[in-house]
Amino acid sequence: MMEFMQEINWSPLWISLKTGFVATVIAFFLGIFCARKIMKLKPVSRAVLDGILTMPLVLPPTVAGFFLLLIFSLRRPFGKFLLESFDFKVVQTWKGCVIAAAVIAFPLMYRNARAAFEQVDVNLIYAGQTLGMSDRRIFWKVIVPAAAPGIASGTVLAFARAIGEYGATSMLAGNILGKTRTVSVAIAAETAAGNYDVAGFWVVVIVLISFVIVALINIVSGRGMKSRRWI
């Protein structure tokens, strides 16, 4: 057992955790920004934009990866522009891991944030307006704290989705050991190579991480709700 553990290359775990953290930060701020803005739109515009923002949640990850590849490929105008103007390459780099994970995780953050904002007592907002608070101050000092449990749940879910992302990541970032190979990509690669012991080890790791995340969601959600006893 010790010999097996010593032979394990731990880079997929560190890459997954690093990718998940950065992608979650991106999804967190973008999700809150979009949830705030979209609630101010008219019903028709809101429905259309909400559908667009939620698409990565319902599309197969490989489809999302295909679109990202079309956008950031060095054979495409935008990909060329980023490389020539800013020396910024996405395809088969760690940046690709982050972008793919952020795109896939974003809808979870956005939907949870929006749902949390919609459940905030409007009387709290009216009270803030009565006190002469600006809309920005009301949002950050009143709405966000009131919606904190929902936002926290969305953040944890986004992180879980980001570290477990495979389809879009494999298409955009590839499978480069020590660079873009995440745990999910490692499981697929080791299984394809017939290394079932190593693949099984990574499966156990990702299952344990997922269990901890689910437990955190339950704890965070429970703090925002009054405990009730059903008889």
List the helices and strands and how they pair.
Elements: H1 2-7, H2 11-38, H3 43-58, H4 61-72, H5 77-86, H6 94-118, H7 122-130, H8 135-146, H9 148-163, H10 167-172, H11 183-192, H12 196-223
Helix pairs in contact: 2-6, 2-9, 2-11, 3-6, 6-9, 7-8, 9-12, 11-12
Description:
The protein has 231 residues and is mainly alpha-helical. It has twelve helices and no strands. The chain has helices at 2-7, 11-38, 43-58, 61-72, 77-86, 94-118, 122-130, 135-146, 148-163, 167-172, 183-192, 196-223. Helix 2 crosses helix 11. The radius of gyration is 20 Å and the shape is globular. The termini are far apart. The mean pLDDT is 89.
User: What's the mean pLDDT score?
Assistant: 89
Taking the sheet with the most strands, its summary is: none
Provide the helix percentage.
over 70%
DSSP E strands, number: 0
Quaternary state, please? Answer: single chain
Gyration radius from CA atoms, angstroms: 20 Å
Tally of DSSP helical segments: 12
> How many angstroms separate the termini?
49 Å
The amount of beta strand, in percent, is: under 5%
Sequence stretches where pLDDT stays below 50 over 5 or more residues: none
Structural class: mainly alpha
Q: Estimate the global geometry from the Cα principal axes.
A: globular
Order of helices and strands: HHHHHHHHHHHH
